[in-house]
Design goal:
Order of helices and strands: EEEEEEEEEEEEEEE
Structural class: mainly beta
Radius of gyration: 15 Å
Shape: globular
Largest sheet: 8 strands, antiparallel
Distance between the termini: 8 Å
Length: 191
């Protein structure tokens, strides 16, 4: 499998190449990170790549506050005729341990968890940077956290091409604010 080189999806300085969809969470670039901050009573917010991707490996580091759930959308879509542009598709879960980090959720698809078995609950290191690797090739989605394989499944129901999206989850009024931080977001397309 010959892959092209890794490309930085985030230039480390500003949000060029990304567009926010849904929600009112705030996203900013600072010190080589994309920082997402919750907004009271906002629905889920997503910072999405302007480009779409088909088969790829995606690598990033993430550090999410205790109390906030997050995720990264892969091959996801936003269409005016689907729930008024609601971002939907496969999401790689990010949350503090013990939790479902690394498993695949069907965001806004009425499918709930695409990952039916979730034996590993502690790969994510709370309060630290965590290295994720996601491989999407054809129907197969594989994930690793800090080098530990978490998921390997076949998913024929999700879109085969779409954007990458960084999620800031909704929170209840009176909670937060919470932050999630991403850095070193890289992708290489697979032939």
């Amino acid at each position: 499998l010959k892959a092209t080189g890794w490309v930085d999806l985030f230039n480390g300085k500003d949000l060029t190449g990304w567009t926010q969809k849904n929600g009112t969470a705030k996203y900013r670039a600072e010190e080589g990170m994309i920082i997402g901050t919750t907004a009271p009573a906002s629905p889920n917010s997503f910072l999405c790549t302007d480009k779409t991707y088909l088969n790829f490996e995606l690598a990033f580091e993430v550090n999410v506050d205790q109390g906030l759930n997050s995720g990264v959308q892969i091959r996801s879509l936003s269409k005016p005729d689907y729930q008024n542009g609601r971002v939907h598709g496969a999401q790689v879960e990010i949350e503090n341990a013990p939790g479902e980090s690394g498993y695949i959720y069907g965001e806004a698809t009425a499918r709930d968890w695409i990952s039916k078995q979730q034996p590993i609950k502690d790969a994510y290191k709370n309060g630290e940077w965590n290295a994720y690797l996601v491989r999407a090739y054809g129907d197969r989605i594989q994930t690793w956290i800090n080098g530990q394989k978490i998921e390997d499944l076949e998913d024929s129901l999700s879109a085969v091409e779409g954007f990458v999206g960084l999620q800031v989850h909704s929170i209840k009024s009176g909670e937060g604010p919470y932050q999630v931080r991403w850095r070193n977001i890289k992708l290489r397309e697979l032939p």
